[in-house]
Amino acid sequence: MKARFPEMSLFVYLAGLVLAGLASGAVAQPDIALLRRPANAAISLPLGQGLDLIHGAEPLGKGRFRLRLANRTNSVVVPDLGRGSSYTGLYGMAYGLRPDLDLSMLVPFLMDSVGGLAKYGTGDLVMGAKWARPRLVPARTYTSVQLLLGLPLGFKGETGLDQFGGGARPYSSHALDLGLQLEMDLHFRHGSMYLNGGFYRSGNPDILPQLVYGIGVESSRRQRRVHLNAEYQSRVAFSRQTQASGVLKTGVRVEVFRGVELELNREFGFLDYPYGTALTFGLRFHGAMAGGRRLESRYALYQPQPRPKPAYSPRRVTRLAVVDFAGFEEFQAGRRLVEKIKIRLEPHDSLMVVDLARYADIPKKGSLTPEQAADLARKLGVDAVVTGSISDYRIDRFSGRRVPYLFEVPQTQVEVDLRYRVLSFSGANPAQMETFTQQVGGQARVRQQVRLLPADQRDITVSASSGELEAIQEAALDDLAGQVLASMAAQFPWIPPDFLP
C-alpha cells in the first residue's frame, strides 16, 4: 500500500497545532495563591536563539545581536479588592561576543492594578552567558552550556496593594538566583528540534531547587517570512516538599519588516503553573554590529558566507597525468572516475591532461609509489601526477527509514570513498616534488514513495530499478570527482578556483 508523504508535512502539522492553540477559548483566571509565591528569576525567556520558552543552542555569532520585547496581560482577582489586571513586560538583549560565546541581559517591568490601587516597578535583572559548539553558523547540530544569574534588583517596596494579603505578586526574589542549563539543537531540512535541561537554585529558602527541562519544534529555518513553533516546558521542585508545573505553548513569528519579527503565542499551564491559559505577544529585532549597525533578517543574517576564491592567473600550461585509480575493478570505478575528472578539466586551457593510453611501458592504473610517480613524470615530462585507490564503494538498496508494519521510506544510496595522492614537480629536477594526500567521498541517493503498512521487510519491487541504480552510481562518482577537484583547488595554485565550493 503506497501513499504520498507531503514534503511540508511538518509545516502543515505545526500550522494546525498553532491555529488550534491561538483560536482556543477565553483566557483562564490565574491562581492568586500560586501567583504570590516568589519565583526563581533565572528561569527566563530566551534572548539569543530559541523559541518563547525553550532556549536554542545555536550561537548568534560574533558581532550579532538580538533585541526582544515580550508582553502579556492577565486578569487577576485579589480578595477584598476585586478584579484587576497584571501586566508583565520583558525587555532584553543578547550579543555575540565571540563566535561561540553569547552574553545576554533581561530587564522585567511589572505593573499591577486592582481596585483602584496600583503597583509598578522592575523585576530582578537576569544576566546570562552561553558557550556553544560548534561556532560555525549554520550547522546541523549544536550543543551549549548556559549560566544564568538572577540579581535581586527588583522593586522591594510596599504599596497600598501589598496590604491586602501581599498584593498580586512579588517583584523580587530578595536573593541571588542561579541556573545552569544544557541545550541541544537538531536542525533538519523541514524543521528544527530544541532540547533543554537545567538545574536552578535560589538563595531564598522559600524557593525550592528546581529541575527545568523541555522540548520544542519549529518549522524550517529556510522559511523566510513565517515560522511556526510548539514547545513544552516542565518544572519540578524538590527538597522539603515537591512541586511541579508545566506549560505548553504554540506560536507563530512573522517578519513584518527587515530584521523585525512579530510573535504571537498561546500558553496552557498545568499543575502548579500560576496561569491557566494566556495570550502573549512581542517583537524580535535581529541585527549586526560589525560592518555598520544595521537590522537584518535572520534568514539573510545566518546564510553561510561564500569562501573567497583565490586569484587565478596561470602563466603556463600545466601538464597533468591522472592514473586510473585502483580498487573495485568489477565496477570499473577507477577508470570511470578518471574520465569524469578529465571531462571537468577539459574546458580549462591552462591544464593539459596527458592521455596515458598513447604511451607504452608506463603504469596506467593502480596506486603508484612516489618513486614510480617520479619516474612517470620524468618519462612523460608532466608537472603533476595524480594516483590513488578507491577505498570503499557501498550500494545500499534498503537504506531508508522504516518502522515495522507501520511505514517505510524506500531509499537507495551509493557512497564512494577515495584516498588519493598528488605529486607536484617543480624545477628541472624531478626529485623536487610536493606531495599532497587526501581522503574524500561522494554520495548520491534516490527516494521512492512512502509505503504505509508494509507487510514484508525488504521488497525489491519498490526499490530502485537497474537503470535508476546505474544513474545513482554515476551521480555518486560525479560528486566524488567534484570533491577531488575542490580539495586540489584549495591546495594548488594551478587548479582553477572555479572548483571550490
| Strand ordering within the main sheet | 1-2-3-5-6-7-8-9-10-11-12-13
Poorly predicted residue ranges: 1-8
Strand fraction: 35-45%
The largest sheet is: 12 strands, antiparallel, barrel
Distance between the termini: 41 Å
Overall pLDDT? 85
Q: What sequence of helices (H) and strands (E) makes up the elements?
A: HHEEEEEEEEEEEEEEHEHEHEEEEEEH
Helix run count: 6
Strand-pairing-aware structural class: mainly beta
Q: Tally of extended strands?
A: 22
What percent of residues adopt helix (DSSP H or I)?
A: 10-25%
- If you compute it from the alpha carbons, what radius of gyration comes out, rounded to the nearest whole angstrom? 31 Å
Shape: elongated
Tell me what you see in this structure.
With 501 residues, the chain is mainly β. Helix content is 14%, strand content 43%. It has six helices and 22 strands. The protein has helices spanning 9-22, 32-35, 298-301, 333-345, 370-380, 466-489, and strands at 64-78, 82-98, 101-114, 117-122, 125-133, 141-151, 177-187, 191-202, 210-219, 226-237, 243-257, 260-271, 277-288, 294-295, 318-322, 351-353, 384-396, 402-403, 407-408, 411-425, 433-447, 451-452. Strand 3 and strand 4 (117-122) form a beta hairpin. The radius of gyration is 31 Å and the shape is elongated. Mean pLDDT is 85; it is low at 1-8.
